[in-house]
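Subject: Sanity check before I submit

Could someone independently write out the structure tokens for this chain? I want to compare against mine line by line before I put it in a report. The sequence has 240 residues.
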Amino acid sequence: MHSPITGPASLSASASTPSRKPSPSAARDASARLQEAATSPYRVCFVCTGNICRSPMAEAVFRARVEEAGLDGLVEVDSAGTGGWHEGDGADPRTVAVLRAAGYEEDHSARQFQTDWFGRLDLVIALDGGHLRALRRLAPTAQDAAKVRLLRSYDPAVISDGPAPRSHDLDVPDPYYGGMAGFEECLEMVEAASEGLLTAVRDALAARGQIIGEAPRGTTAPVGAPVAVAGVPVAAEDAP
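---
Independent answer below. Compare away.
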């Protein structure tokens, strides 16, 4: 261990030591990262359990909202599952039927979410509290954990100025073991939250300077802040 400097010598050394400035290469790297963020697509990934029911439904609906808003060149949308049981499979036939009946297009092949995807994703949208916790545990950094949000936290009819809802109140229930009614309910929940999510993504694009937009209006959880969900711990760096 270095011996401490004491007395007048320490004052002299402190006074004569110049402040450290970023090296030119570090400044260039920081500038390049900012430029890349300002030109890269905003990437959103929806995640459920097997990537055959809820998350492909959310992907199809949100992609349609993005296209309707004219943002399809600026936003990339995909989906995955926390498990790999159905990798390579298409969406559940009941998901396909409900989507097509509502006029949505889908062309899906299931896959499992991978840890190294966090680095390229801007938002990871969990369909229920179990997925939220699993994905945050999987996140390599607190900053990555802060990217994970619950889909229904963007539904203005669910989020209010009152006490934070419990995570299970924000779940999109798994319709896999039920009938068509469960898939129809799933679609209703997804559609209700998609407009709020689109607003948040639009605000993030405006903050990057990629579109001209207004500041967040506070009706949904903003992209740059944690979702307030009772009983779901958030990484320390995810606090406001």
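---
OP: Matches mine. For the report I'm noting this point. The helical segments are 8-16, 24-39, 54-68, 93-101, 129-138, 142-145, 180-208.
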